[in-house]
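Entry type: protein chain
Record version: 2
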Amino acid sequence: MRPKSRVNAILTQVNRDNRGAQLVLSRTAPQMLTALLQKEVPEIAEQIIDIKDVARQPGLRAKVSVKTKDHRIDPVGACIGMRGTRIQAVQQELEGERVDIVVWSDDPVQYIISALEPADVDRIILDEDTKTADIIFATNDQLARAIGSQGQNVRLASELTGYRLNMLLEDEYNAQIENETKVYRDLFYNRLEVDEDLAQALVDIGFTTLEEVAYVPAETFYDIDGLDDEAIDAIQERAKEAVIADELQKQQTIKEPSAELLALEGMTPAWAFQLAARDIVTVDDLAEQAIFDLHDIDGLDEKTAGELIMKARETWFD
């Protein structure tokens, strides 16, 4: 870029000081792509089509999800334009960055399927609580398409949808499910003192933890043949005992900070117990840490962490 060159960019920040204002421009921000589409696609400028999400790997590839307010209009076709003229104009402005337009959906499964195009998804197992999805493919070819060159396609699809996407072949997924089933079955068999058939039945109706078995309503067990109320009470009682035993075991293994660490100048009990939980129990343990090692201690900033570490290291020179 030379002086007096003309450039399209997004204004992302204005820094003001006594010399005036400094304008910070960006061509890599997602808003840059949004602005270009608004310029090239009248339906977006007129708010007939909404841009819902944008994910970019600047200079290489991008994905944009769109939704139409007029169901007579194809939002993808409108963005691409006749013979691709509209999207080509956007891509040329971005120095050849490939832009995929996908249809947004409030159904996360359908949204993920659209975001992974051109791959054909066999099925999806979604966990909305953890925002993860297992994506199952029938063939290696479709799996490779979904991943894309250097992982671009799946990385952008994940960013676009907000879900962590686990890509699996059918055989891999089946093996994973079989292993998980065995883990849960063995857990119930060993801890609840039930036979293998009943342990498997508990897995089949959806149990994965002792806590679930212990505290769900008794009616949940009615789908298992041969269980009366007395047997259900006995199973839940054993599960509660196992949960309590595990909790006591955890409490017994919790480490406490040394008296010297608690007494260290600037240290608080809350920080000391968090450090002890990370096996930093003594002043010498703390002295051997770097500031980054303490970044996840609640309420402890970098400056204070550095001061505590240096205070701990003073003992090396006493």
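Comment: The chain has three domains: 34-120+143-162, 193-252, 259-316.
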